[in-house]
Amino acid sequence: MRVGKRKFAGSPPRRHADLKTMLRALLVSFAMLAVCVGPGTAETAPAAGVHGDSSQELSNVYPAPHLNLAVGSSSGEDSAAENELLEAANKSRELAGIPPFRMDESLRAAARAHAQRMVATEQLEHRLPGELSLLERIAQTSPLKMDRVGENIAYAGSESTANETLMRSPPHRENLLDRGFNLAGIAAIWSQGRLYVVQDFAHEVPSYSAQHSGKLIGRAIGEMRQQAGLPDLVQRMPPKLDEAVCSLARENPPNAHLLATAYNNRKIITYTQSRPEVLPPAAASMLRDPNVHQFAVGACYARSATYPTGTYWVAILLY
After folding, report:
1. Nearest CA-CA partner of 84 in 158, 167, 174, 178
2. Given pLDDT bands bounded at 50, 70 and 90, which one contains residue 44?
3. Is the full-model pTM beyond 0.85?
4. What 3-state class would DSSP assign to 142?
């Protein structure tokens, strides 16, 4: 089995020395990938653009060795194997005291599409030529709101061997037992005696309307003011503020100066978060200003190049 290096986004892949390992009586090749979309940075007065943290990709890549596997099944998708792999993963999570994965069909569709590409090219890679990144291809397939995704890939002689070997590998086991993932989509496809397996994982975030998001954010602001011994702020309702915040996601780069111009306000906090009620620490001094008496909130969940699966975009106007 050949072992690759850990890879971070923006860094060209490099090869490490080969490591040969016997896994019981059968060699199995596998790999994992995790992608996290972090919260965006806070912007304070004077108003400026919203800048999200760049997504980070981390993987241990195990290119496929030459295997001589007996034919274990006819070619094609094996839904029974997919369900057994999910059941095995959830049994391991139960033993570890972790809530089970919920199988999501949109994630399974993304996993199957990638598995079909691996079968067609006879390669074991997270990103094949002409293919989008993991985060982008999941976003293309799934309408869900997600802030983290991950992936394990493997081929083996059976689903039980694939599961056992993945669980014996610390980075792959970490994906399978990650408390931060609550969804899974698993694909299993037979080809020439090999069972190609793709396990896509995701963390689905709560789905709030703009109105509900505004209430949560207003409550968080009130709690922060109360802790500072300051009076509550009066909430204002400027027209079309939610729509104006949505426009930030469509601009490249986002430009919060347009909000300041549109609402004649020079005290604006803008940020992105998978949980809109989590206020950015950098905004605390402005929210605790005793000279501030009123506020308004605009919120919008939107997808962008920086956030392919989407995030909450938030603007807080202070008066």
Report:
1. 158
2. very low
3. no
4. coil
